[in-house]
Amino acid sequence: MGTTSGQTGRIAVDAMGGDLGPAEVVEAVRLALRQYPGLNPITLVGDRAVLEPLLARVRRRPEQLTIHHASEVVTMDDKPLMALKRKKDSSMVRAIELVKDGQASVVVSCGNTGALMAAGTLRLRTMEGVARPALAAVVPRQNGHFVLIDAGANPDAKPEHLVHNAILGSHYCRVMLGIARPRVGLMTIGTEEGKGNALITETNELLRRTTDLINYAGPIEGFHVFAEHVDVVVCDGFVGNIMIKSWESLVKFFSGMLREELQANPVRAVGALMSKGAFNALRERINPERYGGAPLLGLRGNILKAHGSSNRRAIKSAIHAASQIIRADMNQRIEADIARANDLLAVPVA
Amino acid sequence: MGTTSGQTGRIAVDAMGGDLGPAEVVEAVRLALRQYPGLNPITLVGDRAVLEPLLARVRRRPEQLTIHHASEVVTMDDKPLMALKRKKDSSMVRAIELVKDGQASVVVSCGNTGALMAAGTLRLRTMEGVARPALAAVVPRQNGHFVLIDAGANPDAKPEHLVHNAILGSHYCRVMLGIARPRVGLMTIGTEEGKGNALITETNELLRRTTDLINYAGPIEGFHVFAEHVDVVVCDGFVGNIMIKSWESLVKFFSGMLREELQANPVRAVGALMSKGAFNALRERINPERYGGAPLLGLRGNILKAHGSSNRRAIKSAIHAASQIIRADMNQRIEADIARANDLLAVPVA
């Protein structure tokens, strides 16, 4: 099959998997078509009987939007592997098959994460030269955003997987954040010589050999993640998943305490009302809806996972991101860099 | 030597290593003596010529406070192993030697972390049955606090090390947070069957065999860390160090954004002034000074590491924590549990 990205340029949208149901997905599609005139064409995958009435009010040219029927839905409670086996006609599986068969380039889904990642990994092969896919996420930091990779796909990573993550993350950063030569940091625990663990020591050595390809800024420790040090944070899927979820938990805890303290007496409450704009602005700045999807990278074709509870705005952002990935020929460029990196890594250390 | 904790009941305080200098440490000692009448006796370790004038205004009975002279100081810029080799008469090294020689039970220091951990690990042996010490930290969460262990001492942990961390952390949680039977969670990436990495799968299996000793609540993922799920979070030193430092970085980033937004226009600024009490209360709730020290556990004797920039209040808290550790006979009780755990782990799985 060779490369798949850009083959058709279509975006396959799983219309059935999100918490808010197909109406929210259709609304997101409508908004995306309106907001982005040059958007890549979309194939909505799901139950035709449900989708057709919803599409009645969506103004579009016929080639912009088609339906691909799928009779089943993978729910949030389905066990990933079981879902793949039992629900072969689910919107999620069918959407991925469209990419596999070359009828679409990217899948957007807010369905069951485990099932989506398993289906993506099992149904789409990895790119030439890549052993394991990685999940990327865009995270706000001081004066901008960074790409975290891997946010959970590959918890038992080897050094060469992390080098591939650096390449995958750099390209995603370029496409999504518009940074031409993103600075890459390797997540570790103190930047002194000999700090970290065995995986990090070896990965650091490999990254130093690929600086032609990767703008490697060196190791980065926890203290600096939300400062303006790097644009791509590379880690294994175990560390990445724990980090990103614990950050979400911390923001929730912090916001909850703040809300509680602001309501503790009437003077504070009036003050809070006056400075309401600040809290809204803060919420907007850390709003994950702006970069609605976390892509599974390193596959022949891309899968953009949006949060299960995504609303129309988040899904619209994910659809837009899918379009940008296709237009930037991201996967072709990644494949070229992976091939060069593998050549460099194959040379024994002098 | 056998156990050391409780041998003398003295607290050796490194008077020279903190960013704010010996005057701040002496002031912390003065406050601790005043606030805690039954405090364990203290040996201040440092330059006698510097310390004696500072002590002039500290009211105490002679047996409550003595000076142990040390002519050198390990600075924040010293390389850990070099410092140990070259600065044999430093306050840090001498304080640890007091524990080694049975003249003190716990060291409190706000000096160079790397040097302190290296000195502790190399000069004090690990407890019977424990292969690697672990760094514990008390972290605020919804409706209380939890103990994170390991926060950075052992980045390449084996499953049995994590079981030991669970025991060390449970005892520290009991002593510091007053929770009789703390719930222990194993940090991982999703609580479904088969999630995590090889280390977690094996550790989970071992912890299930030691439920007589450890109140094991099962795996815990990032989403739940700051909720009220568990009292002790067990992880290896790599993950723990990244988590705790990235949380500090995130709180700083979040607070900075909030401050910026609150000052963005005059109405917000007035509102912020009115609700100032809320921000102060929030700061107090997440104030690390309340639990000034992070102990290095699993050694014959304990080392309490306070932040380099600790002020008198933080150092006072660390001294108080040292006293509580000694009074609770913490190390004797840990040694007994470690022995029982090692017996349980030695039995092959049926």
UniProtKB/TrEMBL annotation, chains A, B:
Pathway: Lipid metabolism; phospholipid metabolism. GO terms for molecular function: phosphate:acyl-[acyl carrier protein] acyltransferase activity. InterPro entries: FA_synthesis, Phospholipid_synth_PlsX-like. It catalyses: a fatty acyl-[ACP] + phosphate = an acyl phosphate + holo-[ACP]. It is an enzyme of class 2 (transferase). It is found in: Cytoplasm. GO terms for cellular component: cytoplasm. GO terms for biological process: fatty acid biosynthetic process; phospholipid biosynthetic process. The keyword Metal-binding does not apply. Keywords: Cytoplasm, Lipid biosynthesis, Lipid metabolism, Phospholipid biosynthesis, Phospholipid metabolism, Transferase. Gene3D superfamilies: Isopropylmalate Dehydrogenase. Its EC number is 2.3.1.274. Catalyzes the reversible formation of acyl-phosphate (acyl-PO(4)) from acyl-[acyl-carrier-protein] (acyl-ACP). This enzyme utilizes acyl-ACP as fatty acyl donor, but not acyl-CoA. Homodimer. Probably interacts with PlsY. Belongs to the PlsX family. This is Phosphate acyltransferase.
